[in-house]
Amino acid sequence: MSVNIQTIVEQFKIEGNYESAKVFGSGLINTTYKVITKEEAAPNYLLQIVNHHIFKNVPELTRNIKRVTDHIRSKLVKENGADLARQVLNPIDTQDGLGFVQDAEGKYWRMFLFIENARSYDQLSNGHQAYMGGKAFGQFQSRMADLPGEPLYPVLPDFHNTEMRILNFIERVKADPAGRVKEVQAEVDFLMARSEEYKKVVQMGRDGIIPERIVHQDTKFNNVLLDENDNILCVIDLDTVMPGFVCYDIGDAIRNGANTGKEDDRELDNVSLNMELYEGFIKGFMEETKEVLTPAEIDTLAFGAKLLTYEQAVRFLDDYIDGDNYYKINSPDHNLVRTRAQIKLLQSMEDNFDKMEAIVKQYAS
Ligand code: ADP
Ligand code: GN1
Ligand code: MG
Q1: What is the DSSP letter of 292?
Q2: Whose atoms come closest to the Cα of 218: which ligand?
Q3: What is the mean pLDDT of the chain?
Q4: What pLDDT, in 10s, does the model give residues 193-230?
Q5: What 8-state DSSP symbol labels residue 119?
């Protein structure tokens, strides 16, 4: 890259001096680096290029993240023995006080304290991890319940508005910008056959049956940092924290985390709902939230897993039909492979839906 990372880093108020930077993590949207400082005593940092084609208002996004992390920190300081460097993301301010740097190419950079000795898994290996994932997102959600001040800025309006996503998808299929629709007609038909069912949560919100709350909205398991004993450190990747419905968070956590295969598994036989991991997520999430959730919200939780899987299939296929403009891809058919894996997972959830609902009932009581 032509931009010199050191000159970017030096515009932030860091301790110590820049030594090196290397690409880090496996997110599909932003570009992340770990920055090492020369001095042993100085912390390391996490530097990110924010994808401003997606997050168009970086100043407001920066303000949201500051408000959210300040609020979590204000709760942690009241807890005995809380580790303020590891139990909350710490954004690093810039010399000019803006909190982000825009380089000569127009890219936006931001920085956090690097959380040392943290684990972030793309795939789970046991029910304890799922339980911790459910707890982490449940705890995040209950901490946000008393965020002071005006509503958070809607950085991505209608992010999980499935009704809107379906309307956009129909338009995309009609326009067929990359000439790919004929190749994916079976997948389009599968998703369109279910479109009415998956408008339900948005409609329930509109009818006042379920309340909006501040939720995370990108609850992949690699957005939870765990310590060396797999206990919760903190929830990261706060770009999408906005008002939304509670089933989005537990739903997406299950979609991403309770899959026997990978999100982009080419081998569809690997993909299904892992009931043990599903139960772990529900147990952890319910422990943290059941006192505040309404019966109508509790009724949406198992459905949320299907909803978010459906929506993710629509989003991946939409991007494939569009010619791959949104998600990072590793192969020309990557978004189609991802779509097929989401459809397979959704089918498995449809087959197990009664059991999924029974597990929610068990932990809600
Ligand atoms: P993306 O939006 O691209 O998913 P993330 O903010 O989730 O970006 O960061 C990508 C990865 O970097 C995370 O999954 C996690 O492994 C790691 N990471 C992010 N922030 C920190 C941090 N402050 N300390 C240590 N690791 C981090
Ligand atoms: C993106 O940024 P990352 O990789 O955590 C996406 C999520 C998708 C996910 C699918 C802002 O998450 O909504 O569920 O990919 N984030 C955004 O892997 O679109
Ligand atoms: Mg992430």
Answers
A1: T
A2: 2
A3: 97
A4: 999 999 999 999 999 999 999 999 999 999 999 999 99
A5: B
Q: Whose CA is nearest to atom 5 of ligand 2?
A: 27
Q: Say if residue 175 is exposed, middle or buried (CB neighbours under 10 Å; 0-12, 13-18, 19+).
A: exposed
Q: What is the pLDDT of residues 87-107, one digit of tens each?
A: 999 999 999 999 999 999 999
Q: State residue 233 phi and psi, 5-degree precision.
A: -95, -65
Q: Tokens representing 320?
A: 């494939």
- Burial label for 325, CB within 10 Å (0-12, 13-18, 19+), is exposed
Reference 123, options 277, 329, 311; nearest CA is 277
Report if pTM > 0.85.
Answer: yes
CA-based max dimension of the chain: 60
232-235 vs 242-244, strand pairing mode: unpaired
> Strands across the sheet with 108-113, in order?
18-23, 31-37, 45-50, 108-113, 101-102
Walk me through the domains of the chain, giving residue ranges and CATH numbers: 5-113 (3.30.200.20), 127-364 (3.90.1200.10)
Q: Please state at what angle helix 185-192 crosses helix 334-351, rounded to 10 degrees.
A: 40
pLDDT tens digits, 326-360: 999 999 999 999 999 999 999 999 999 999 999 99
Q: Which of 89, 114, 120, 219 to mutate to test ligand 1, by most ligand atoms within 8 A of the CB atom?
A: 120
Rounded Cα–Cα distance for residues 187 and 154 (Å): 31
